[in-house]
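Final report, closing paragraph on structural work. Over the funding period we assembled a curated collection of sequence-structure pairs, and we close with a single example.
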Amino acid sequence: MLDIIQRLETADPRRGLFLYDDFAGPPEVVPYREFASRVAGAAEHFRARGVAPGTRVVLPFETSSSVIFAFLGLMELGAVPLSVKPYILSTPKGPYRDFLARIRERYGATVILDVPSLAGLELPLERLPLPPSGAKRAGVKLREVAPDELAFVQFSSGSTSFPKGVPITQENLAANLRMIIRHDGRTTEDRVTSWLPLYHDMGLIGGLLTCITVGNDLLLSQPASFLMDPLGWLELISTEKVMGSVIPNFAIDYALKSLKSADADDLKRLDLSRVRSIYLGSEPINIPNLEQFLDILAPCGLRRDVFMPCYGMAETVLMVASVPPRQTVRVITAPNGQPAISVGRPLTEFEVRLRAEDGRLCGEGELGEIELRGGSLAPSYFLDDRPLRGGDGFYATGDLGFQKEGELFITGRINDRIKVNGQSFFSADFEQAVERLPFIRPGRTAVIQVKGRLVVLAEVNHPSALERLEDSRKQVCQSVLETVGVTLSQEDVLFIRYGQLQKTSSGKLQRRAITEAYEQGRIRTVTPMELRADLLQMRAQRLVLGSVMVARQRGRRWMASGRAAIAAGLQRLRS
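Its predicted structure, as stored:
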């Protein structure tokens, strides 16, 4: 990575990193030509504070230029950044402190980068100050690194256990970056946007580091900016002539709500005809929602072949398989009778096979656990003597799927498998069926199996769904029956208080923890009065966090309307 940054000193001065606090305001611009001097300046700052090669530094990866150059500066120094989720103000402090304490104990880290979100928080580690803003050392040649040197540690999602540290070597990092860039064929002239958090492999590798490697513009926004203003993301793509992006399926589901209620004039102003490739991964893809998204934005120039469903994991740095650019998404029927979406062919560097429940290798179209070998697969977890791979070099991923005509289809996780009358289904099959209903909050449903019973735990978006409780439960059961073909008991459909469905740092449901909470009686159902209180609290939080962002966004739309009106008036005068 450091040799790539060194070469950027001769990059086009117009190319670089564009950091947005929101989608409306002007960005902070850091030309790629300045990267080497900024990295060297950060490294010198850390060296002066006693950080040495091999020092393990917990790095809460906020989206800012200071933290990005701190990360790269630690790499230049030969220290080991442990990339973790930053503290979010709306979350409890105790669990976050406990998480940091476990990282300290498990991985021997003694210092933590003192990012702004940690202000006022008691920490179990010594604070390491951020480099001064804009710190530079011009004319310094960055060091050469050995291929097997540890670049940083990233963490698995932690959907079934405490997140595991994955050691990312310089060699494996470079290899996976080459795979991604070769696959999408981008050039230095392209522009990419991302709002994914940088502690997550899709955000760090797929968003930031691929762009640095190619030298193409990256328009990087705060994760909260998308949550507050999903249409602003589309407007940024339109106005800044963006070629591509990388997003989780959640983004489609979330943006769809705003698109359905959007003002027609707002959509008319969008020009998405330059979009060529959007990686779509991280979680099961909601196929009906993806189709609706494409239908709504087709008049804006968004082609049906821009989405590239993909498959990857922290253990392989990032990508394992992906649909290529300009190929329409392929949907077929899975062995369990449910629709499944292709994530393309595995990259040539990886060898993929599938193993059935009885231990035999799967044939064409048979459902089994995905096993990987080769490519950029890590040899083991960080500071863990147990091999990641089996005796023949294959890694059992815990993901289930099947292959058809060389393409890979993901159906779910082993731990998410639900068996009904001897037939295999997956939690996502049921959850997507439930979330088709307008009164269910997208991404806020968990379907678990407890002693043979299927239990639906869902958050609703309006008290009226609770006031007609029996009818709402009946609609849930009917949607599941029509979509999945399984009958639920209405008594097992529970509408719950907000915030009880535990998720990983990457937004995946922690199903084991949720099931345990349910079995221990810790999941609370919600009354209409409690829901009104939850909604008021949530709206208040959004008002505080988003008032400036929304005001700026409205101002930009107002100015765009004004400019259009002025242009129309001038045209009439000329004619």
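The first strand starts at residue 16 and ends at 20. Residues 556-570 have pLDDT under 50 and may be disordered. We thank the funder for supporting this effort.
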